[in-house]
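User: Please fill in residues for this 343-position structure.
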């Protein structure tokens, strides 16, 4: 049995742990894996590499992906790219492909399975934790840990200068990273995309805290957060192959309003891609490894058109189409708990 592995979309810590686990399980069963390079672009262009166990055994601690990634969407240029995908799949002699990605990458896998019966199995990943079906994605825990380490550092400089620091996190349309890191770093206020920005309330909270003796403040804002009746803040009008604009810059807008209304010196920090870099946390290594082992199992059982997912503590299989039908917003129960600290 020959199994292809592919990582698509934004990278995140834990991808290499999945590659290692799938490779090991397939080899244990007498098969072997190859790596398709740079996401779907690799299948369009026929780019691949061998994956000897000796080269994947030690990669669990490495961030990013040894296969490379891209946001290529073969359905954007269906006349030219889809025939290439099918041709290369055949030419490589693949019996199955394990696609590791977010909703975009898994959406392509789901369509290729539905449209051409290509034998696909999906593994969900993203720091945003916005994938349906699975309780958590690997990458998220590491990203939250990176954010809280950054906030812990920002706290000391903010306190020294009696400043308000507005910290922008990633997450696209989902506030998981902002909410969890805001709770874990004891932020004075958290803005998420699911709840319109109430800047007046935030300003009041910051003034009350100052009056109560706290001479600095930390505000966490998710990149997709919006003021009532306005669009999200984008860095450019350019869009990727899947139609996503590059978000960013809302922290500066929020910081400006806070400084004007309070008179407190305020700075903003955009954490950006730092949140996706470096070694995966223990939690992400374990989750990614379990996902990889169970994905390989689906391949061996020829359960194609499925993805693995976390439900409670169990790894389950779900139809790929369920995972990509719509995004999983922040569960507002978490936000209500967080807001106990900024009422
Ligand atoms: O989906 C993961 C993510 O990191 C989002 O949080 C962010 O908006 C986006 O990717 C950034 O994408 P890129 O790496 O293409 O700039």
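Assistant: Residues filled in for all 343 positions:
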């Amino acid at each position: 049995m020959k199994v292809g592995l592919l990582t698509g979309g934004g990278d995140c810590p834990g991808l290499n742990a999945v590659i290692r686990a799938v490779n090991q399980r397939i080899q244990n069963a007498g098969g072997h894996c190859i790596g398709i390079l740079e996401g779907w672009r690799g299948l369009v262009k026929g780019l691949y590499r061998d994956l000897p166990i000796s080269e994947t055994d030690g990669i669990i601690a490495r961030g990013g992906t040894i296969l490379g990634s891209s946001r290529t969407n073969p359905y954007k240029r269906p006349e030219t790219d889809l025939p290439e995908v099918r041709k290369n799949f055949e030419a490589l002699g693949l019996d199955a492909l394990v696609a590791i990605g977010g909703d975009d990458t898994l959406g392509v896998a789901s369509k290729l399975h539905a449209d051409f019966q290509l034998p696909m199995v999906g593994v969900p990943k993203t720091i945003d934790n916005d994938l349906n079906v699975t309780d958590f994605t690997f990458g998220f825990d590491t990203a939250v840990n990176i954010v809280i380490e950054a906030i812990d550092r920002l706290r000391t400089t903010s306190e020294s200068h009696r400043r308000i620091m507005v910290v922008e996190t990633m997450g696209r349309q989902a506030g998981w990273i902002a909410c969890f890191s805001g709770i874990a770093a004891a932020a004075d206020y958290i803005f998420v995309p699911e709840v319109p920005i109430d800047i007046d309330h935030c300003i009041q909270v910051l003034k009350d805290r100052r009056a109560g003796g706290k001479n600095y403040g930390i505000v966490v804002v998710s990149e997709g957060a919006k003021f009532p009746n306005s669009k999200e803040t984008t860095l450019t009008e350019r869009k990727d192959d899947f139609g996503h604009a590059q978000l960013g810059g809302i922290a500066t807008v929020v910081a400006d309003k806070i400084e004007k209304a309070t008179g407190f010196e305020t700075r903003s920090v955009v954490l950006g891609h730092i949140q996706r870099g470096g070694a995966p946390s223990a939690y992400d290594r374990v989750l990614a490894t379990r996902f990889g082992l169970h994905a390989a199992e689906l391949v061996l059982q020829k359960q194609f058109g499925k993805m693995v997912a976390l439900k409670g503590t169990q790894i389950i299989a779900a139809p790929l189409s369920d995972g990509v039908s719509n995004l999983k917003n922040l569960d507002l129960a978490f936000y209500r708990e967080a807001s106990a600290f900024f009422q």
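For context: The longest helix spans residues 140-161.
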